[in-house]
């Protein structure tokens, strides 16, 4: 990789930028475009170290007439989105989905050969991939700032770039594609980029299903076809037909933790939408197969099923089509609230899979393997992955909501007050009721609205086939009784459906005690009989980092996983770890391959669940080529972690991390929790107060509407700091930890040893380096200059920037580099290209925030919209924002 951006990427940025310029000129005149270019030129020269240009940029922005502020912010926001399209297009074309150092791109074929060289037999490779259980859980956390209508236009723009690049021999095609590109960019410019209403949970679920329809539906069979070919080359056999190494689940419409908008009715609607969408997609597949499978040769089994017909495959498919059409009609009737009176429907995966499998086996038996392994195999692969529901829907609720139901129940039955009992008495009661054959909940029990909603959710579970549902996650789980409570409610209300129950450990204290809690849980004989010796545990990244600081949280997450692996091995229970990661470093984000290989040995043993959140879904799975590469990366990483696990950390590395985490935690808490100026500074210098008006997602920005930073959700907490480029949650405390150790004898040597030999520590430093490169303390200082008056708050800001500077020095010292991102030029160049377009948005945002405060929140609608556009633009420019 050359130090400059690849030529095609640079050319596409220019093509899109020029087209946007022409569109704006047509709308607002060339004089306005000249203003934009003046602003960009000031910003670019300011980035080259010209302080005069920096001052002139700020002065120029402050003197803009009010009617120019909105179109200026829109112009820079739009360019940043177009730059993202160009980069996304480049990554798809050159298979660079993740930001790796040159030469470290994971390639599945090479890994399979390496695994064989390490002593793994061809059969072992096939078995490991066939039994692999990787579930990518799509979540609707409010980090996707771009409207769906614009995303569709951006996807079409990407298609135009492909057409232009492939038109050398057909110039007329290039001309047509260029004309379509101009049209789409004009459409985007004339479309409001800000939603006026928050999306509902159902809207979010529809967006998730659209990703499957537009991208994954094609990418999934392509991925399996590539995997098939690799296994044939290296192991001499195909992947089993029903194997699905990578599957998809969703939280959209099921995550009710802190979101009052997710109700039992919403969950039921989302499940029905999944059935409707799946039926609609399969109908297209089945119509194609009915058209293509016109053969008459068939085995006796298919002839017996089809009857005395000349085209047996078409006959089987015609019947399947009728059932699938009925399924779509049934789902539509249920959604619209009228009675369905049609024919039999398809309710389970096997009802769709078995007839298709019969066709496949027949074709193979009569020597038509080439046809069997064409479109029919693609549909079989889709059924194996998506079933008849597209995704498995997870459900999440807070532990206290379940405890409230049992408290109301025991009080109503005269059994005492559940919430006053100690843990032993709670367990005794819950286990007795789990073993009892009589119902516990009275038929006409009058309970609170909150408890009724919890029970209604379990009724939805009872009405569904288990294959439509994923895991029931309990947030804020602290004791075995939290899990037993859900098991009891599922038994009492959930009918025959029993879902895996995963406690979620997310605060520092919860992570430190996770192994102990699960050990107690697995020691309960009555519980072991419920779980079939399989336990899922979720590790939370967002709230632990907000609670303890990133370095201390990362080490606590690592130790919690080690503890859980040891506990489950001792009990003879299969463990699946569910990683609740976000898009940013501060929420466990980063390249998936590096993240998986940095986990403790044994924690990724062929199974893994991980959240894919917000805008990262679009970046990783929004287009078929990129989705294909993302799935390969996950399969590659899980296969490597399973067959070639990382080394166990040396005892002295663990001691080092204990000390580093202790220092970092103390420094973080000393500022965030103990400095009385911190909360006022946060409120003054970031757009946190205005952020609540940006209609990003269906969840409130706060768990409670009163209280301070501790009530703020991890996503807006990080989003607010990212907007001013200080990125504080992801680094505060790390500088003190590293600087202290570097000053001690042997400190540099041991930190470099850990960096080079321990994937966990090396990955952490890589993520920290990327984050430091995206941060900009000069921009943060300008926000402070414009928005903060109190001398004590300014003093705190100065200290924070000094801490940032010491951390940057320490990281460069450990990495033995003169500047950040020396070894990852693609990221460095991507940041440098975007900065002249992001910088004006920062200047405008600070100005608009001050005007908003001066007007006590009563600025004009255009200025309010301009403020929201600056947030969207900065988020687009920095990409992994929340």
UniProtKB/TrEMBL annotation:
Keyword Magnesium: yes
GO molecular function per UniProt: magnesium ion binding; phosphoenolpyruvate carboxylase activity
EC number: 4.1.1.31
Protein keywords: Carbon dioxide fixation, Lyase, Magnesium, Pyruvate
InterPro entries: PEP_COase, PEP_COase_bac/pln-type, PEP_COase_Lys_AS, PEPCASE_His_AS, Pyrv/PenolPyrv_kinase-like_dom
Catalytic activity, reaction form: oxaloacetate + phosphate = phosphoenolpyruvate + hydrogencarbonate
GO biological process: carbon fixation; oxaloacetate metabolic process; tricarboxylic acid cycle
Domain of life: Bacteria
Catalytic residues identified in the record: 141, 546
GO cellular component: cytosol
Cofactor: Mg(2+)
Main function: Forms oxaloacetate, a four-carbon dicarboxylic acid source for the tricarboxylic acid cycle.
UniProt record similarity statement: Belongs to the PEPCase type 1 family.
Assembly information from the UniProt record: Homotetramer.
Name of the protein in its database record: Phosphoenolpyruvate carboxylase
Organism per entry: Vreelandella sulfidaeris
Lineage summary: Bacteria, Pseudomonadati, Pseudomonadota, Gammaproteobacteria, Oceanospirillales
């Amino acid at each position: 990789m050359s130090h400059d951006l690849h030529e095609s990427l640079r050319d596409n940025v220019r093509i899109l930028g020029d087209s946007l310029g022409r569109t704006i000129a047509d709308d607002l005149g060339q004089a306005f475009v000249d203003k934009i270019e003046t602003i960009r030129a000031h910003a670019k020269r300011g980035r080259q170290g010209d302080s005069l240009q920096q001052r002139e940029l700020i002065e120029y922005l402050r003197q803009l007439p009010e009617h120019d502020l909105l179109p200026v912010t829109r112009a820079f926001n739009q360019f940043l989105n177009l730059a993202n399209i160009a980069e996304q297009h480049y990554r798809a074309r050159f298979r660079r989905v993740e930001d790796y150092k040159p030469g470290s791109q994971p390639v599945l074929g090479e890994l399979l050969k390496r695994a064989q060289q390490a002593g793994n037999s061809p059969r072992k490779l096939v078995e490991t991939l066939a039994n692999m259980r990787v579930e990518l859980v799509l979540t609707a956390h409010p980090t996707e700032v771009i409207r769906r209508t614009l995303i569709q236009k951006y996807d079409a723009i990407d298609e135009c770039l492909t057409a232009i690049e492939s038109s050398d021999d057909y110039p007329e095609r290039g001309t047509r594609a260029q004309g379509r590109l101009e049209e789409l960019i004009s459409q985007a410019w004339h479309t409001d980029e800000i939603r006026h209403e928050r999306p509902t949970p159902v809207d979010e679920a529809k967006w998730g299903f659209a990703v499957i329809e537009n991208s994954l539906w094609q990418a999934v069979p392509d991925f399996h076809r590539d995997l098939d070919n690799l296994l044939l080359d290296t192991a001499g056999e195909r992947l089993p037909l029903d194997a699905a190494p990578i599957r998809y689940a969703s939280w959209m419409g099921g995550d009710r933790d802190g979101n009052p908008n997710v109700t039992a009715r919403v969950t039921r609607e989302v499940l029905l939408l999944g059935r409707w969408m799946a039926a609609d997609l399969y109908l297209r597949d089945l119509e194609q197969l009915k058209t293509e499978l016109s053969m008459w040769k068939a085995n006796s089994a298919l002839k017996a099923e089809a009857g005395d017909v000349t085209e047996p495959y078409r006959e089987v498919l015609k019947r399947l089509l009728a059932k699938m059409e009925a399924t779509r009609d049934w789902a539509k009737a249920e959604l619209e609230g009228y009675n369905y009176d049609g024919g039999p429907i398809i309710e389970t995966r096997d009802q769709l899979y078995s007839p298709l499998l019969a066709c496949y086996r027949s074709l193979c038996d009569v020597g038509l393997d080439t046809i069997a392994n064409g479109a029919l195999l693609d549909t079989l692969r889709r059924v194996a992955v998506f079933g008849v529901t597209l995704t498995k829907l997870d459900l999440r609720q807070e532990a206290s909501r379940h405890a409230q139901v049992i408290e109301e129940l025991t009080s109503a039955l005269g059994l005492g007050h559940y919430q006053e009992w100690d843990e032993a008495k709670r367990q005794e009661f819950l286990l007795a009721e789990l073993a009892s054959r009589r119902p516990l909940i009275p038929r006409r029990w009058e309970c609170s609205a909150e408890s009724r909603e919890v029970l209604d959710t379990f009724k939805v579970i009872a009405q569904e086939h288990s294959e439509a549902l994923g895991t029931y996650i309990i947030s804020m789980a602290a004791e075995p009784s939290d899990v037993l409570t859900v098991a009891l409610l599922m038994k009492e209300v959930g009918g025959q459906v029993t879902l895996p129950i995963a406690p979620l450990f997310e605060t520092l204290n919860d992570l430190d005690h996770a192994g102990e809690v699960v050990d107690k849980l697995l020691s309960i004989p009555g519980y072991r009989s419920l779980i079939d010796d399989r336990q899922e545990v979720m590790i939370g990244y967002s709230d632990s980092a907000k609670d303890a600081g990133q370095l201390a949280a990362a080490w606590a997450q690592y130790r919690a996983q080690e503890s859980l692996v040891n506990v489950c091995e001792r009990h003879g229970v299969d463990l699946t770890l569910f990683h609740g990661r976000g898009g940013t470093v501060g929420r466990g984000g980063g390249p998936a391959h590096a993240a998986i290989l940095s986990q403790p040995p044994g924690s990724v043993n062929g199974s893994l669940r991980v959240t894919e959140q917000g805008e990262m879904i679009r970046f990783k799975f929004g287009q078929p080529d990129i989705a294909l590469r993302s799935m390969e990366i996950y399969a590659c990483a899980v296969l490597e972690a399973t067959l070639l696990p990382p080394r166990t950390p040396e005892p002295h590395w663990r001691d080092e991390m204990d000390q580093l985490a202790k220092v970092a935690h103390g420094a973080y808490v000393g500022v965030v929790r103990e400095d009385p100026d911190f909360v006022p500074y946060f409120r003054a210098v970031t757009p946190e107060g205005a952020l609540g008006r940006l209609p990003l997602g269906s969840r409130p920005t706060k768990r409670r509407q009163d209280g301070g930073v501790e009530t703020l959700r991890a996503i807006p907490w990080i989003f607010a700091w990212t907007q001013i480029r200080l990125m504080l949650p992801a680094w505060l405390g790390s500088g003190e930890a590293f600087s202290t150790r570097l000053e001690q004898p042997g400190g540099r040597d041991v930190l470099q040893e850990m960096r080079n030999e321990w994937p966990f520590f090396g990955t952490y430093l890589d993520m920290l380096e990327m984050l430091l490169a995206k941060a900009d303390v000069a921009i943060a200082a300008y926000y402070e200059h414009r928005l903060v008056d109190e001398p004590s708050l300014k003093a705190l800001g100065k200290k924070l920037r000094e801490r940032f500077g010491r951390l940057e020095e320490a990281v460069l010292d450990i990495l033995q580099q003169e500047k950040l991102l020396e070894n990852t030029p693609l990221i460095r160049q991507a940041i440098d290209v975007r900065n002249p377009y992001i910088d004006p948005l920062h200047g405008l945002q600070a100005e608009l925030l001050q005007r908003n405060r001066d007007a006590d929140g009563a600025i004009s609608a255009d200025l309010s919209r301009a403020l929201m556009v600056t947030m969207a633009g900065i988020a687009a420019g920095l990409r992994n924002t929340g």
